[in-house]
């Protein structure tokens, strides 16, 4: 699966995903299931490479909050396109916990979600080649937003009044 | 009423083009029906028994005459010449071809209309009191806040894939014409001890197979916190609402399972943890939206002018129409006029293109060009001079739109039922029509007084039977249509769920059974009592006795 960034650019994936502590490669960025990470969090102190976790969408982000400073990536899941729990997880990570590392969307990710995902704070996306190709156009498809988000768009209510103030 | 600026317009135009692409991807096979389904639903396109159906949003039920004319044009060009006004103050077209829908939406966009979030598991079209702005005793015009919620909820990045649909209603006064107690979130404007306006927040109401009256989770929410508090409610729901069973996925199930107090605590905790003021609107935005809903420049008119009183005396038919269809306006000399879309023998809420055009023309002539759609599937002209009522009534009558039955037994809410809907177990519209026939005598209807009959063709309760004074639920019993009756439901400020009276009735028996319930009421009513009052005083027993006396 190609990995793209917010703008739809293909990026190399430096991460390997492993299921257990034993499989964890030395000196290479790796993603562990959140559950495994939590169980062995002390054993991972002083690890010599970047670490990320994969958080199921029925698990509260609060559970990994104390460790966010040592996590370079959080992978959030879309088991089905219509299951929107991970949007709240991403927003909580960014908004409440001030998380600045990578947030990756994985699973059933379509171009039709692009704006929503980016606005909630996701910045890496595992998508098929076809979706990757259309990502940029999909992001530009809707030119107006009404709510504050994590992208660069100024919401319409603020644009209205910025314009008035400038006049 | 609210008008789009360039931002509102650009978003709607963009959404039309986005949907055009999505339709093309479906038609070319790039999208599977499974993938296309949530996308089309979020833009109001359902697959019904015979064809696709398009539901167009009428935010908080407010329409301009020009918009209504466009709906008439759409009905004629893309449908079979009519549309169906719904219990969410929207309009549905039952026969458009999928390939035509993008063009249809493009035509609607030109008059500031869309189908965004009229279905799907997202925040739906926000509804409000149809008398907003013209009712006496209002704290504030609820449409101001409904419009703020409309904008905030449109393509919300976090809440577009909820466990299930999410419906919000707002009322500006104590009288509740918006049925806030049977909504996922109901907002009732109120004042705190210092006289500041704000909202009582109700949550977890709903109908369907698990009817619930909403619970108050906050007695007073200051206005400026409206959006952040709603975000907190939605965020708790988005994370914890059930997704394993569509029938248990509404917020009411979550609220019932954790308890209203615990749910309120979770929302409060979520809300307190939010960055302060992030969602407060910029200075001037509330005022900008309020200005669109400022009252028109009313003339200084005498209340109940002599000519109006004289027409009522001389023309009993007019007087009867006034009694049922005309409501008090906050401004002396003005009136609120309800246009019944429940002519005897018609389908409740249906309007032909010609009827829509007639109402639009009369709204321009007599009512400052504005129309409201009610959740009881009628139309309202909110600002009519009392001195014009007689002429307006004659014109409405000319178009067959002066049925004097608003709030009476023939003013029935009914879902499309087995004739149109793939979910239904039984017919709804023909039952409504038979009740209308049985009670065709308007004098008899007026004598019976206020009586809300609501019919659903299946347990999903689109016809609101749980909150009907008389509720009729169609069920399937060994392949036969059967109807279960409830009494005592209400969706107003005294909201309650109806109770089942007993065993059901066959299609051929149900109208007799309704008539028997009415007879029981007439036998027991005290002076001045409506059906619901009598039921609340005497209980269900006298009704049961009469209904099952022969058993």
Supply the key terms:
heterodimer, A: 167 residues, alpha/beta, eight-stranded mixed beta sheet, 5 helices, 19% strand, globular, B: 551 residues, alpha+beta, five-stranded antiparallel beta sheet
Describe this structure in words.
The complex is a heterodimer of chains A (167) and B (551). With 167 residues, chain A is of the alpha/beta class. Helix content of chain A is 29%, strand content 19%. Chain A has 5 helices and 8 strands. Chain A has helices at residues 34-39, 85-96, 114-120, 129-140, 156-166, and strands at residues 3-5, 10-11, 16-17, 30-33, 51-55, 73-78, 102-107, 124-126. Chain A has an 8-stranded mixed beta sheet with strand order 2-1-8-7-6-5-4-3. The longest helix of chain A is centred in the middle third of the chain and has 12 residues, at 85-96. The radius of gyration of chain A is 17 Å and the shape is globular. The mean pLDDT of chain A is 93. Helices cover 36% and strands 17% of the residues of chain B. By secondary structure, chain B is an alpha+beta fold. In chain B, helix 1 runs antiparallel to helix 4 (101-109), helix 6 (226-240) crosses helix 8 and helix 10 (306-314) crosses helix 11. Chain B has 18 helices and 21 strands. In chain B, strand 8 (185-191) and strand 9 form a beta hairpin. The termini of chain B are far apart. Chain B has helices at residues 6-27, 33-41, 65-78, 101-109, 142-153, 226-240, 251-258, 260-272, 285-292, 306-314, 316-325, 353-366, 389-398, 429-438, 442-448, 510-524, 531-538, 541-547; strands at residues 45-47, 52-56, 62-64, 82-85, 91-93, 127-128, 168-171, 185-191, 197-203, 215-222, 326-328, 334-339, 350-352, 370-373, 379-385, 413-414, 453-456, 470-477, 480-487, 499-500, 505-506. In chain B, strands 16, 17, 18, 19, 20 and 21 form a 6-stranded mixed beta sheet that branches. Classes of the chains: A alpha/beta (167), B alpha+beta (551).
